[in-house]
Amino acid sequence: MLRIPCPFCGERDYTEFAFWGDASFPRPADPQELSDSEWSEHLFHRDNPAGQYLEYWHHALGCRGWFIIQRDTRTHLISPVCRGGEGRS
Amino acid sequence: MSRYSLATLARHAWRSNAHWPEALPERPLKPSYDAVIVGAGGHGLAAAWYLASQHGMTNIAVVDKGWLGGGNVARNTTIVRSNYFHPARRAMTNRALELWRGLSQELNYNVMFSPRGIINLAHSSSQMDDLARRGNAMMVDGVGAELLSVEDIRRRVPILDTDPQARHPIVGGMVQHEAGTARHDAVAWGYARAAMALGVDIFQNCEVTGIETREGRVESVNTGRGRIATPRLALCAAGGTSHLARMVGLTMPLENHLLQACVTEPVKPVLDCIVTHGVHNFYISQTDKGELVLGGDIDGYNNATSVGDPRTFEEIARVCLSLFPGFEQLRVMRTWGGVVDMSMDGSPILSHTSIDGLYVNAGWCYGGFKATPAAGEVLAAMIATDTTPSLAAEFGLDRFTTGAVVSEEGHGPRPWMYH
What range(s) does the Rhodanese domain occupy (chain B) (predicted)? Predict the structure, then answer.
């Protein structure tokens, strides 16, 4: 089973967590200023890599903290994590 | 290529079955084709067949990185149905159902389509209301649906635990009698054989390594076996669509996730229809060999491999036993996974792209198999005429810009939540 290293609680089974998707891009500072296609790009279009992937996890059945991990979608090896939105590349 | 018939069967039996011609003979790669389809799975091969049989385009190549029918057409749970609420999804799968009925005859290949019915269970009165709403929507389109009482279900599927004290008490359900199963591998083989008989070339172990465009038009595709010049290129490679689209600088509204399934050891006939759970995502049917085929949710996090998380099986088994306690002693014989293209609204993409001559058939999520004939037919029409067939009108890529997403479940842009 995939084990997720929660930066607050340590490593736990992934069933304690809610997966919340791609964390590789920030939310646009001012969505009102975006064209429809730019907004679509942000909302729907994904790099979808086979490899290193930044993703949000929410420790829903634990401390309820949010954090980002980097996981390889081919091997599921996980690199160091950051809390909340800190340290997003 | 000879037709399969009772006469050929007898003739070859008379000759000790030693002289059957090779079903898929290897052919040399030509330097150019009128259209190239990437992906020798159900959808790609179906598109090739309909291009050849309905549009007279026979100078076509289907290329695949792996072997024929080795992707998701070999990995699904063989269910064919059209019990969708959304009109566009229902229309597409219903067209598929029409084609499924005559497919074995059309292809001269037994795809073993078996319209045994699918029962969606309900475990609460609100779920019954929801099924009634869905059934009504289906019947407006002439798709048969029938609400079932617990008593009806007990009669139809005696092995289900219909006890009111069950873990998930069943309060009723809905059946689509015309739904069923088909032999998934035979679908790929049948389409391939029929298409090849009309002149389509199929190349296995032929990975696409690049796509060349000129002035916004597809010009050629580079493969492990060499360059193929073509004005029309269709991507039918579930799990690989984002990768292929990246070759021409497009990002897709897709994510790759892993869907698993398993079969038990074969047993005598106990289940003559498909049953789906109303609370958990779970579906089960019995093959003609007697194995029970079970499936559930995707693993829940992006995955580029076909190796899944064992937890999904625990859940499938647990849910299965809550409905069928009698299956407790059955052993699981085989498990497997397939990488699916989960789209951002849970609905497929059958679309032109910003590159002329590049067409995308992707994002079928869990539900590609049932739509195989229709997806192939629609894609063939799109390739042959360079227009958008009416069945594909709502499945264009532009819906993610206009906001007209086709979201039956309404989870927003969270592909891991769709089914």
Answer: 36-79
